[in-house]
Specification:
The structure is a homodimer. Chain A has five helices and ten strands, in the order αββββββαββαβαβα. By secondary structure, chain A is of the alpha+beta class. Chain A has a single domain, classed as Trna Endonuclease, Chain: A, domain 1 (3-Layer(aba) Sandwich), CATH 3.40.1350.10. In chain A, strands 1-4-5-7-8-10 form a six-stranded mixed β-sheet, with helices on both faces. In chain A, strands 2-3 form a two-stranded antiparallel sheet. In chain A, strand 4 and strand 5 form a beta hairpin. Chain A starts with 10 loop residues before the first helix and ends with a helix. Chains A and B meet through strand 3, strand 4, strand 5 and helix 2 of A and strand 3, strand 4, strand 5 and helix 2 of B. The structure holds magnesium ion (MG) (2 copies).
């Protein structure tokens, strides 16, 4: 009886659903960034069609999501684990941490959405705390974020029907926007 | 003696250069979004390599650039023309206009960088004005933005050595951030 996300949706799908809901209902403009790809060769089988026949994934330089809520810049990434007791840091990448440091330094709002899929629990967790844990891990500290810390320092995202992962109330209350 | 951009750089290159400069100097975090591509087939010639062999461009749903300046969300696109007397509206797309309307409605800052390459003149032009002109054109109005209007209502971006298209001062003074 393992559940993978709500209503069988994956985490990214749930976030996309929420973002569409916020856009249509004039609550926020938040988009997932496209995956960066370097195109090497394109064929034109006919005049109106471009078919990419050689391309490669390139390392992103940011997180996956950003946008605007009440004029404020928000920026986040989403991570999931099947673990019930911690979120492993191997799910995170240095470029995401560096980007979120830059965002915070310029007055933006940064966070992670952390999903414990086997508990069906979702948390908003501030980037500042995650950066701190990451930096300590680089110096030999813990290689994961304990579930207990997430549930204490994060803010749980409540289940709803529509959208199923309604993270905007948690975001607005945590960051007071 | 036609000049294409400053120091022979294209418009996008100049904006990327400025964004890198702002990032390194802790002035702003602004990135170009990757071009959205749907990947259909990937080959793995060896374990460490993914080669995309079939993919297609998809219609973007946003503008090309967004980021944070002093905590405020900013969003823009860049357009260039060789014309000396107007910027044709055919350079703009409905999805960009719609996205910028959504951004403004949610308190974000939206604008265009308009380049008259044969005049070597660059302007920051507020999205609100462009949206107004676009909406009127859809009802049979002008199909271009007159240079005179851009130079009067926009704010000219001054030439500098580094970065060559230093649009941040224009942005901060126009939107008072
Ligand atoms: Mg991610
Ligand atoms: Mg463009």
């Amino acid at each position: 009886n393992v559940r993978y996300g709500k209503r069988g949706m994956g985490l990214e799908e749930m976030i996309n659903e929420a973002n569409s809901y916020y856009l249509v209902n004039h609550l926020a403009v938040i988009h997932k960034k496209p995956t960066p790809i370097t195109v090497v060769h394109v064929d034109y089988p006919d005049r109106s069609m471009a078919k990419i026949t050689e391309a490669y994934y390139v390392q992103p330089s940011t997180t996956d999501y950003n946008g605007v809520v009440n004029g404020r810049y928000i920026d986040f990434d989403a991570k999931e684990t099947k673990n019930k007791t911690n979120m492993p840091l191997k799910n995170f990448h240095q470029h995401q941490i560096t980007h979120l440091k830059n965002v915070l330094e310029n007055g933006g709002i940064g966070f992670f959405i952390l999903a414990f899929t086997n508990l069906a629990e979702y948390y908003l967790f501030p980037a500042a705390l995650l950066i701190d844990i990451w930096d300590k891990s680089q110096l030999g500290g813990e290689k994961s974020v304990p579930y207990n810390l997430v549930s204490k320092q994060g803010i749980q995202i409540n289940s709803k029907m529509i959208p199923s992962l309604d993270y905007l109330p948690a975001l607005k209350s945590f960051f007071k926007i």
